[in-house]
């Protein structure tokens, strides 16, 4: 593990911001590192406002999309809301369908089957629309590369509106409207919306034409915040505003489906971390283990008792998912060892028996053992399908582009992608991908990095310091929870390994002349207990620990040296 200390900002700027905001210099330094230099910028950062959301009509084709939907509503056309089976897709479908159902009864939803249809727009989905007299499909979180499928739909007199956030190809589908801030000809000021975020911009535009305000739409922001958290998009700009208010909805008046998921959680206030680890996996489990329809039903259910029943079913899927991904991870690690591939620049593994719904999770797990770009393949019909995950700083999508001669199709982002290929292309692809990674990756990127925001004296952790730190959230990509270092700390002698498998580390840390003790927990750091016999350095986040109704500040250890 390498520790990299971020460049310290100019001291006079730090002093100036510290004074004008009346905050600790460590905090003002972190703000400057994140592009916040003035009182007004800090005000916008600490006090997000819905008024700072961009005009949705700045999105290319938004006016066309709104006109087509208004026409469909006026003519009582049947509208099919179509979306991907993951969290972003199912929340987007739930959001847009829920809103449109307040205007028209001619709304239905469609989530493709992960196994029978695969990712994105499917021929089966279009045939379903044609068979049931749908003349308009609104596609969410998919469709940007569905050139042939959109053409097929138009032959059946079905119009498409595509709302996507994935990187477009050289050509766009000939849909009625394509809403995607990443279009080269789109000048929308923020291009990091998730699929559900684009769906929200669509209903924002529709609502504005109907005389509704943003306050009328806040009820949908629990879905948007969940999608942003799950899809690992930057929590900056619009995403930060949407997440900030979405968390407020989750904590005050969430929809029945989310309320049912969190009803057993013993926390007063849920954070973005809770959304990532509690809400999102359960919504995802439906699409992974059974069908994404279960998630949409849960998220749109109006009766709370029914939602409780749906949530219980999905919880079973989630438990099953955990067992399966644990088993597959073990098998994949054995495969790497047996093939003598521990020293490679990439991980590419395959078994036809692996469950397609969890291969993305397994890829992430393998990176914990072998820190390098990773692909996990399984059999999908006549083809092989894979989920790709990357390490910080390496663009796996770009690497796949360089291997495209071996691929049937692929899509995704810098750090996560999906692809399919013919079985006979597996070995050539594996060899080419390894060669591409070996040639293009900076060798430093193969060592996990902890980016340190600032050194900190433990005695500086006052209630005010922690209160302001919390207000820097919601945290996520491009606005991560600050990481601090403190040197030469000691354990009070009661440090121990904890957890069922003793993989975690619990310490009581002493630092400074006051001999004050600070509680610390390090998940997955159980083996580091030998490093705590003498003075040691720590890298950590500050966190809150809730136990038996009491809340206290604790150090969340990331590494020990």
Summarize the structure.
This protein is 40% helix and 20% strand. It is an alpha/beta fold.
Strand order of the largest sheet: 3-2-4-5-6
Query: What is the number of helices?
Result: 18
CATH architectural arrangement of the largest domain? Alpha-Beta Complex
Give the class-level CATH name of the largest domain. Alpha Beta
End-to-end separation in angstroms reads 10 Å
Q: In angstroms, what is the radius of gyration?
A: 24 Å
| Classification by helices and strands | alpha/beta
* CATH topology type of the largest domain: inorganic pyrophosphatase (n-terminal core)
Tell me the quaternary state.
single chain
Helix content, binned percent: 25-40%
Shape: globular
What is the overall pLDDT average? 94
Question: Which sheet architecture does the biggest sheet show?
Answer: 5 strands, parallel
Low-confidence stretches: none
Beta-strand share of residues: 15-25%
- Annotation, overall tally of beta strands: 19
| Structural domains: how many | 3
SSE blueprint and pairings:
Blueprint: E1 2-5, H1 11-21, H2 25-33, H3 39-46, H4 62-74, E2 78-83, H5 87-100, E3 107-110, H6 123-131, E4 134-140, H7 147-155, E5 159-163, E6 177-179, H8 195-209, H9 221-231, H10 237-252, H11 256-262, H12 272-289, H13 293-300, H14 304-338, E7 347-350, H15 359-369, E8 374-380, E9 383-389, H16 396-401, E10 409-412, E11 416-421, H17 426-440, E12 449-452, E13 454-455, H18 463-470, E14 484-491, E15 496-498, E16 504-510, E17 517-522, E18 536-547, E19 550-560
Parallel strand pairs: 1-12, 2-3, 2-4, 4-5, 5-6, 7-8, 13-14, 17-19
Antiparallel strand pairs: 8-9, 9-11, 10-11, 14-16, 14-18, 15-16, 16-17, 18-19
């Amino acid at each position: 593990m390498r520790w990299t200390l971020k460049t310290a900002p100019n001291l006079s700027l730090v002093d100036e911001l510290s004074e004008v905001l009346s905050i600790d210099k460590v905090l003002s330094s972190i703000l400057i590192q994140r592009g916040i230099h003035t009182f007004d910028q800090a005000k916008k950062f600490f006090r997000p406002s819905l008024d700072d959301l961009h005009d949705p009509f700045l999105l290319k084709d938004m006016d066309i999309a709104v006109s087509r939907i208004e026409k469909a509503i006026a003519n009582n056309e049947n509208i099919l809301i179509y979306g991907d089976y993951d969290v972003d897709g199912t929340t987007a479908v739930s959001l847009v369908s829920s809103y449109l159902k307040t205007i028209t009864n001619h709304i239905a939803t469609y989530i493709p089957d992960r196994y029978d249809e695969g990712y994105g727009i499917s021929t089966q989905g279009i045939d379903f629309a044609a068979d049931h007299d749908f003349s308009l499909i609104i596609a969410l979180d998919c469709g940007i590369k569905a050139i042939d499928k959109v053409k097929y739909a138009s032959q059946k007199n079905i119009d498409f509106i595509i709302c996507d956030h994935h990187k477009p190809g050289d050509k766009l589908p000939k849909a009625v409207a394509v809403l995607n801030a990443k279009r080269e000809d789109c000048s929308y000021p923020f291009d990091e919306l998730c699929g559900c975020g684009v769906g929200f911009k669509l209903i924002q535009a529709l609502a504005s034409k109907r005389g509704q305000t943003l306050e009328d739409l806040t009820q949908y922001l629990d879905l948007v915040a969940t999608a942003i958290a799950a899809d690992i998009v930057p929590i900056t700009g619009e995403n930060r505003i949407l997440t900030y208010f979405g968390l407020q909805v989750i904590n005050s008046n969430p929809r029945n489906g989310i309320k049912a998921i969190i009803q057993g959680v013993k926390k007063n206030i849920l954070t973005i971390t809770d959304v990532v680890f509690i809400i999102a996996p359960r919504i995802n489990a439906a699409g992974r283990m059974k069908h994404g329809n279960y998630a949409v039903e849960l998220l749109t259910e109006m009766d709370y008792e029914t939602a409780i029943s749906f949530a219980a079913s999905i919880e079973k899927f989630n438990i099953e998912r955990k067992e399966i991904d644990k088993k597959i991870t073990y098998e994949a690690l054995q495969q790497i060892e047996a093939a003598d591939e521990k020293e490679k620049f990439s991980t590419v593994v395959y078994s036809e028996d692996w469950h397609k719904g969890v291969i993305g999770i397994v890829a992430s797990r393998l990176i914990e053992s072998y820190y390098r770009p990773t692909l996990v393949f399984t059999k999908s019909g006549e083809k092989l399908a894979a989920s790709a995950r990357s390490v910080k700083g390496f663009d796996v999508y770009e690497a796949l582009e360089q291997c495209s001669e071996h691929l049937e199709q692929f899509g995704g982002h810098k750090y996560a992608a999906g692809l399919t290929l013919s079985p006979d292309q597996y070995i050539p692809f594996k060899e080419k991908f390894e060669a591409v990674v070996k040639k293009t990756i900076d060798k430093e990127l193969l060592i996990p990095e902890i980016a340190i925001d600032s050194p900190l004296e433990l005695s500086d952790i006052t209630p005010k310091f922690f209160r302001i730190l919390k207000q820097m959230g919601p945290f996520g990509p491009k606005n991560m929870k600050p990481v601090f270092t403190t040197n030469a700390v000691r354990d009070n002698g009661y440090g121990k390994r904890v957890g069922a498998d003793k993989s975690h580390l619990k310490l009581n840390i002493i630092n400074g002349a006051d001999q004050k003790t600070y509680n610390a927990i390090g998940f997955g750091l159980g083996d580091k207990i030998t490093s705590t016999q003498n003075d040691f350095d720590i890298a950590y986040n500050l966190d809150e620990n809730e136990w038996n109704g009491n809340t206290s500040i604790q150090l969340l250890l990331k590494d020990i040296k």
